């Protein structure tokens, strides 16, 4: 029987007021809210918004909830189960499970299997897990957010650790900062817009006209939002334009730090996250916490570079978004028009 949202929230607040509490119970209660979409009872648009609200009400940071949720979700994946009741069986600390996930992504398979058995049995300390993970941690921790390809465990041929290619990227370092990774993701989304917009809109032909806009300032509900990237496409002069919104997330930390993607749902026909294809942790976090009508675009940062005057990598649709009718589309067009007017005024003043 599904518990009422008020009961769950009251129990969570009660747990957080205790000096010692079982994090497993808190994670299970929160995942029940997600599984049954109980956050809709409070008029919240997503599970992420509910986590932010309950954390604020309890006087805690949302990161605490995400740490427990990530650990519980990872445990269920390891035991190949969807039964939330099994979260109560967890013997390991959330930090130990977090380190185990990093070990799985970075260490040779035999090392991971041995640590997995100890962690799931509750026999591995956090210090031991940290020590093993540190042995296989790459020099740049921001460059190893994704899982290595099957058979290449223990190597760093994945997100950030790009292979050197004599004919493709002679000047590209082997390890990129988060800022450069974000720039590469955005550039790839814009370069390949003609292809992925056709796929999302399920059209037989590419758009007749399209244009990508970046960093659009949009006032919504007395709050100003800055939207990362919007692509507006048109297939037929007799049909209305279609708006595609994309929010770039280079790693799990980026996703957990910001939920500013929700305003996109009010002004876009299709909305997607754009992420590195190799980052399985980020992908699972999005699939676990974001509504199913939000899509996912995967940029293969480990593929051959495409030279078109800028860095661009192949873009594939991992999850198809659902078409929606945006309720505030007019405000988007007004913001774009005002931006254009400001640009013309500035140019006219410079001409004089």
Write structural notes for this entry.
By secondary structure, this protein is an alpha/beta fold. The protein folds into 2 domains: 139 residues, no CATH class; 162 residues, no CATH class. Helix content is 44%, strand content 15%. It is built from 13 helices and 8 strands. The strands form 2 sheets. A 6-stranded mixed beta sheet has the order 1-2-3-4-5-8, with helices on both faces. A hairpin with a 7-residue loop joins strand 2 and strand 3. Helix 2 packs across helix 4, helix 3 crosses helix 4 and helix 5 packs parallel to helix 7. The radius of gyration is 22 Å and the shape is globular. The chain starts with a helix and ends with a helix. About 12% of the residues have low confidence.
Question: Which term fits the overall shape?
Answer: globular
Number of domains: 2
**Mean of residue pLDDT?**
80
Q: Specify the oligomeric state.
A: single chain
Classify the beta-strand content into a percent band. Answer: 5-15%
Please state the structural category: alpha/beta
- Give the biggest sheet: 6 strands, mixed
Q: Any idea what the radius of gyration is?
A: 22 Å
Contiguous helical run count: 13
| Regions with little confidence, pLDDT below 50 for 5+ residues | 140-176, 344-349
Q: Order of strands across the widest beta sheet?
A: 1-2-3-4-5-8
Order of helices and strands: HHHHHHHHHEEEHHEHEEEEH
Share of residues in helices: 40-55%
User: Could you give the count of β-strands?
Assistant: 8
């Amino acid at each position: 029987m599904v518990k009422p949202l008020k009961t769950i929230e009251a129990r969570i607040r009660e747990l957080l007021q205790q000096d010692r509490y079982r994090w497993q119970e808190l994670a299970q209660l929160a995942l029940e809210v997600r599984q049954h979409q109980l956050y809709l009872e409070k008029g919240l648009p997503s599970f992420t918004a509910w986590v932010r609200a309950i954390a604020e009400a309890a006087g805690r940071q949302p990161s605490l909830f995400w740490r427990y949720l990530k650990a519980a979700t990872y445990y269920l994946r390891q035991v190949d189960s969807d039964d939330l009741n099994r979260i109560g069986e967890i013997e390991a600390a959330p930090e130990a499970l977090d380190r185990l996930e990093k070990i799985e992504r970075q260490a040779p398979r035999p090392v991971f299997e041995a640590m997995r058995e100890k962690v799931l049995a509750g026999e591995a300390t956090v210090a031991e897990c940290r020590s093993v993970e540190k042995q296989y941690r790459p020099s740049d921790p921001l460059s190893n957010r994704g899982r290595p390809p099957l058979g290449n465990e223990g190597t760093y041929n994945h997100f950030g650790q790009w292979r050197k290619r004599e004919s493709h990227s002679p000047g590209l370092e082997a390890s990129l900062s988060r800022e450069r990774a974000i720039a590469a993701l955005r550039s790839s989304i814009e370069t390949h817009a003609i292809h992925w917009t056709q796929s999302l809109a399920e059209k037989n032909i590419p758009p007749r006209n399209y244009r990508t806009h970046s960093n659009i300032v949009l006032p919504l509900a007395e709050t100003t939002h800055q939207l990362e990237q919007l692509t507006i496409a048109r297939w037929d002069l007799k049909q209305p334009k279609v708006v595609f919104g994309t929010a770039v997330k280079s790693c799990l930390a980026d996703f957990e730090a910001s939920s500013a993607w929700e305003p996109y749902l009010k002004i876009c026909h299709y909305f997607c996250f754009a992420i590195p294809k190799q980052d399985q942790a980020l992908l699972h976090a999005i699939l676990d916490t974001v509504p199913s009508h939000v899509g996912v675009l995967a940029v293969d940062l480990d593929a051959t570079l495409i030279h078109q005057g800028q860095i661009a990598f192949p873009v594939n649709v991992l999850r198809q978004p659902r078409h929606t009718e945006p309720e505030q589309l007019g405000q988007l067009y007004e913001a774009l028009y005002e931006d254009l007017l400001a640009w013309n005024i500035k140019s006219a003043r410079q001409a004089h």
